[in-house]
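QA checklist item 7 of 12: single-chain prediction sanity check.
[x] sequence parsed
[x] length recorded as 177
[x] structure emitted
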Amino acid sequence: MNTENLETIDKIVDDKPVRLREAFFSKNYPEIYDLIMRFTNSLDLPFIQRVWHWVNDFDKYFTCECGKKTSFNRNWKDGYKLNCSAKCAQVKQSTKEKRKQTTIQKWGVDNVAKSEIVKEITEKSNIEKWGYKSTFQNEEVRNKWKENIEKKWELIIILKQMNLRLKQKYIIFKSGV
């Protein structure tokens, strides 16, 4: 971060967001406006983002670890969001490790399913709702699961058979038989 540039912007803005507009800068501070525009000339961005880039000495697009562009926060000083999506944030190793450490602090185990307290609560609610410690002990639940698996795999088997037939026809056509 270029503290000199930040101080310059802070003096101009003086906690009045209206002053952080392109028209205001170009009219009242043409030298600074020109510096900002020249620094970010390779970037096609709104003026407020260009200011952030100038203040932070960052002359390329801000991207997530996965390579996608991220969105800009409402407060220009906060800059860009670190991740392109919630999904991307969840799969990061640092996020997984932080989640694991929080679970260890809170429950004493690395996964809540390993906690005796959670197991007891789950068993109690299953007994109240289904009449059994495990939902799979209920015959209705087992039958529904079985139906869903049969539907799913029947569809998969049909699609595989169709694909196999198409491949066989292609091989026959290709060989000229």
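[x] summary fact logged: Helices lie at 3-13, 22-28, 30-39, 47-55, 86-91, 93-107, 116-130, 139-175.
[ ] second reviewer sign-off
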